């Protein structure tokens, strides 16, 4: 019976996330098909375990097993999904390249400013991947960043700042200190982070408000990070609406 409850609980929880359109707050939706596959498998296994339980006399599961089972299901259904914003960044601070606070997986750490997908490739494969991604932007003098290419462009800028120097960059994000940022998910929340660039402008930007900024890319010193970082200078600033989905996702070709 306990196995039936586990599989059924997982199926119902995933069904709830899909029905409420909140699955994208946990994983990159490019991999949502894996969730659907696991949901179908868990449904089949739940039916199988239920039929086994019905066919034989079953002992009641221990109370502790039921409690452990109910907790994640209860959290999934009744704890609200909260969109991250500048207050989350303020509570943890910005670090480059990654936070020292481990997410629980020795291979996964919360990422800041510079997306880093190198952990998913060998060193040679990563170099080839980045150079292939660089090709469409190499000859451009002006680059507009949208939800689809946000994480790719930011990773390229931090990897090859000298090749982007002097190019005009336009993108939208929320303000934290003198940075304009977006929260992004590479595969799932375990490798999520907050990404963006330092903004060099005399304009007064309101903390946690959304703006579309445009200016020339250069490398400049960050007092808060105590190092040189890719930045946007000579910025034009236009207030922007917060997008319906504030997250951006990494798209692998």
Plain-language structure description:
- With 253 residues, the chain is α/β, with parallel strands linked by helices.
- The protein folds into two domains: 2-78, no CATH class; 86-249, no CATH class.
- It contains seven helices and nine strands, in the order H-H-H-H-E-E-H-E-H-H-E-E-E-E-E-E.
- The protein has a five-stranded mixed β-barrel.
- Strand 4 (168-176) and strand 5 (179-185) form a beta hairpin.
Taking pLDDT < 50 over at least 5 consecutive residues as the criterion, the unreliable ranges are 98-108
Q: In terms of quaternary structure, what is this?
A: single chain
Task: Report the span from N to C terminus.
Answer: 43 Å
Count of DSSP H/I helices:
7
Number of strands: 9
Derived structural class: alpha/beta
CA gyration radius, whole angstroms: 22 Å
Total number of domains: 2
Sum up the overall morphology in one term: elongated
Strand content: 25-35%
Largest sheet: spatial strand order: 4-5-6-8-7
Q: Estimate the mean pLDDT confidence.
A: 80
